[in-house]
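From the methods appendix. Each design record in this collection lists the tokenized structure first, followed by the designed amino acid sequence. Records were kept in a plain field format so they could be parsed without special tools. The example shown here is representative of the layout used throughout.

RECORD:
FOLD TOKENS (123 positions):
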């Protein structure tokens, strides 16, 4: 007969004491994105359909370049945090670790690629 104490049953199923941090991080990034994305969409929309030289000139302006970089970094960080929370809720074991590493790496690669392209355009 196997006897488990209530403490032993609760290990791995209780609070990790990071929920508040995740909640505030997601809230702050979503509020930041709520203000940045409409502004960026206006700037991007005005450049849409223009010639290549006009688009490069639009994204070479400091405000547009900085806003685009911020959206890439904050947006991909928001995506990684949200996907990590979802993965932690619905998967266990090695699959969980692999998926969290994949999502974090994917977000980092997308942000780095976007910033590299932006630097090539802006400079």
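DESIGN:
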């Amino acid at each position: 007969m196997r006897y488990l104490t209530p403490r032993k049953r609760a290990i791995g199923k209780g609070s990790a004491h990071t929920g508040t941090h995740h909640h505030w991080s997601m809230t702050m990034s979503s509020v930041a994105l709520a203000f940045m994305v409409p502004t960026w969409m206006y700037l991007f929309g005005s450049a849409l359909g223009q010639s290549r030289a006009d688009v490069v000139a639009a994204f070479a302006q400091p405000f547009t370049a900085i806003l685009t970089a911020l959206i890439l970094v904050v947006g991909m960080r928001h995506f990684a945090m949200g996907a990590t929370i979802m993965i932690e809720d619905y998967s266990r074991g090695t699959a969980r670790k692999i998926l969290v590493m994949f999502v974090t790496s994917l977000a980092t690669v997308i942000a780095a690629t976007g910033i590299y392209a932006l630097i090539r355009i802006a400079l």
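APPENDIX NOTE: The chain has one domain: 18-122.
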